[in-house]
Amino acid sequence: MSIRTYKGNAPKRGANTYIDPSAVVAGDVTLGDDASIWPLVAARGDVNRIQIGARTNVQDGTVLHVTRRSSQLPDGYPLIIGEDVTIGHHCMLHGCVLGNRILVGMGAIIMDGVVIEDDVFIGAGTLVPPNKRLESGFLYVGNPMQKKRPLKDSEIAFLKQSAVNYVELKNDYLAEG
């Protein structure tokens, strides 16, 4: 496993986290309890911070990065991911804020300054352009993204269940040693 310190910032891990040996987690990265980082993920908190909430899973081949602070952008854009979030395979999240109970479909791209409220589905392959705000309780799809429809109660329930499923899978991997 490649956990790297960068300029004195070492990744911090909550209880019972899983980081696949092929993943790279570097710099100012914090993982909440029961979070999981799967194969070939790159999480690079080198020029700003990455925060990943409890029970959140980041799936294979995803890239997590940030935007540096500057005179034009004093805080830069950190990457903040809430609790019970499922980030599908091969996604790109860059300097954005995700609330709780979100599913990011495979291959989605979420750009700088985006804020996603709680309880949102983002369809596979969706591009969320910079500085957009995605309202709670909706499905967003497309390139560029469009608000498609309100989520069904069953879909909202699935958001939490998806995170639970990955906590269980992560526990299996940890038990294997």
Automatic annotation (TrEMBL):
Top-level lineage group: Bacteria
Pfam families, A to Z: Hexapep
InterPro entries the UniProt entry points to: Hexapep, LbH_gamma_CA-like, Transf_Hexapept/Carb_Anhydrase, Trimer_LpxA-like_sf
SUPFAM superfamilies: Trimeric LpxA-like enzymes
Name of the molecule in the record: Gamma carbonic anhydrase family protein
Annotated source species: Alteromonas salexigens
Organism placement in taxonomy: Bacteria, Pseudomonadati, Pseudomonadota, Gammaproteobacteria, Alteromonadales
